[in-house]
Specification:
20 strands, Uridine Diphospho-n-acetylenolpyruvylglucosamine Reductase, domain 3, Uridine Diphospho-n-acetylenolpyruvylglucosamine Reductase, domain 2, 458 residues, alpha+beta, 14 helices, seven-stranded antiparallel beta sheet, five-stranded antiparallel beta sheet, binds flavin-adenine dinucleotide, Alpha-Beta Plaits
Length: 458
């Protein structure tokens, strides 16, 4: 390490520095049991402390990798020997909740679930939601511009934040803690850090946008045979539910069978032989009338033949059980190391795209197991492929099968997880040389010595 441990210890405050075994004892990621490879972990408590630490690292050319909840799925938080981890785990205060302005001001290390719960207590809601809610942090959500389960209604993390404070590589504090919905006083600088995966600055605080807590939540699981019918169902539901459709998640048959396998002791809510399973949710403002209307819209889907079977959740527990199926992504790890994908494409292209992908994977790995599920309403599919090993060579072949057909149809190699290390070799399929060059120039301007998350994204 280029910065001395005693200096870091002084900058981080009491108990703020971990080294040696305390570092090695930590896993590199929520699904990655390898120990953290960095030399030390510094755990500041506030923005000023982050600023002093980065100023020192900048001066001495010390590489810094920011850690939030370590739930990122593209290796963006991986470290190498010699790196310093800057963890936001002690920056976890909810500083203010403004009920009138419907904003919450938080430090970057607050867990998403803690934010959601604090908002609910005030009769409000923070609408970002994803399966990793109990572990991921607001800083990580913003740094990856996380998507999740309600993008179709509320947009991605970017659209749910009004202000961001970030520290640049040289220690400059760039505080754009805006509280207003409208602010066109020149360029919106906070956007530079949203989705930048820790490469342009360390996010230290944020002003989050809250909404009124919905009065009703209606959830259904529908069995649908063809993908064409799934797509028509999306339009039917969106039209029928009058702007309240908040989730439209689809599980293909193989995924549904995996997460309802008899040995898991789960009672499948619907027969296991249908082509697709759509988890559909509406959040509305009328506790009495909304469930009835929801039932009418679902009933019409059944009557018209778009759906062939359906179950509507009658309680919070039933709702959670339906979501648990969609969130049981870890079951895909049971068959061996999973190779996971998060692609984005036009809904109209999905059928052809998936047929091509299946053909390519079957040709290269006849014994593969492949599961497809995801936020179809957002054009976002998750594909998990298991072929027994995930060596670099195998991974590359699988990636070629998945990404090959994507470029021609203008799809994206990353819908919501980011680029990190894992998707870096494929970024050129979704971004032009001019775009990549502009990203490089931005990096060189904000982090001229390249100390922040070196080697990631570009
Ligand atoms: C079960 C599960 C479900 C998931 N579901 C979804 C989903 O539906 N949608 C979705 O978009 N993603 C999903 N994810 C991945 C998602 O990107 C992360 O869960 C989350 O947004 C990352 O937050 P984190 O605090 O864990 O960040 P980390 O994993 O710690 O870091 C992720 C990246 O952000 C950087 N970073 C972290 N904190 C900061 C900061 N304060 N300032 C600057 N850079 C920072 C890191 O350096 C790294 O590059 C899921 C992950 C899991 C495990």
């Amino acid at each position: 390490m280029k910065v001395s441990l005693s200096e870091l210890s002084a900058l981080a405050g009491e108990g703020g520095l971990l080294e040696g075994e305390s570092v090695r004892a930590r896993a590199a990621g929520i699904w990655n049991p390898d120990p953290i490879a960095a030399d030390a972990i510094v755990r500041p408590r506030d923005t000023q402390s982050v600023s002093r630490i980065l100023a020192s690292c900048h001066e001495q050319g010390q590489a810094v990798v920011t850690h939030g909840g370590l739930t990122g799925l593209v290796g963006g938080a991986l470290t190498r020997p010699g790196d310093l981890v800057l963890s936001t785990e002690r920056m976890n205060a909810i500083e203010d909740l403004d009920e009138t302005g419907r904003t919450m001001t938080v430090q970057a290390g607050v867990r998403l679930q803690a934010v959601q719960e604090a908002a609910l207590e005030a009769g409000l809601e923070f609408t970002l939601d994803l399966g990793a809610r109990g572990s991921c942090t607001i800083g990580g959500n913003l740094a990856t511009n996380a998507g999740g389960n309600r993008v179709i209604r509320y947009g991605m993390a970017r659209e749910q934040v009004l202000g961001v404070e970030a520290v640049l590589a040289d220690g400059t504090v760039l505080s754009s803690m805006n509280h207003m919905l409208k602010n066109n006083a020149a360029l919106d600088l906070k956007q530079l850090f949203i989705g930048s995966e820790g490469t342009l600055g360390v996010i230290t605080r944020a002003v989050l946008r809250l909404r009124e807590r919905p009065a009703s939540c209606c959830t259904a699981l529908l069995a649908v045979e063809s993908l064409d019918d799934v797509i028509q169902l999306l339009r039917h539901a969106d039209r029928g539910l009058g702007g309240t459709l908040s989730a439209f998640e689809v599980m293909w048959r193989d995924y549904f069978r995996l997460v309802t396998a008899p040995e898991l002791g789960v009672t499948p809510p619907l027969g296991r032989d249908h082509g697709h399973y759509v988890l559909l949710e509406a959040l509305g403002g009328n506790e009495e009338a909304d469930p009835e209307h929801f039932e009418t819209v679902m009933g019409a889907a059944l009557e018209s033949g778009l759906a062939v079977d359906a179950v509507i959740a009658n309680s919070g527990r039933e709702r959670e059980a339906l979501w648990a199926l969609r969130d049981a992504v870890e079951r895909t790890h049971d068959a061996g190391p999973p190779i996971t994908f998060d692609v984005s494409l036009r809904i109209a292209d999905m059928q052809d795209y998936l047929s091509q992908v299946r053909r390519r994977i079957d040709a290269a790995f006849p014994d593969n197991q492949t599961w497809v599920f995801g936020h179809l309403g957002d054009g976002n599919l998750h594909i998990v492929v298991s072929v027994g090993d995930d060596s670099d060579e195998t991974r590359h072949k699988v990636e070629e099968a998945i990404y090959g057909p994507l470029q021609a149809i203008g799809g994206s190699v990353s819908a919501e997880h980011g680029i990190g290390l894992e998707k870096k070799p494929w970024l050129h399929l979704s971004r032009s040389p001019e775009e990549i060059e502009t990203l490089r120039r931005l990096k060189a301007t904000l982090d001229p010595k390249g100390i922040l998350n070196p080697g990631k994204v570009i």
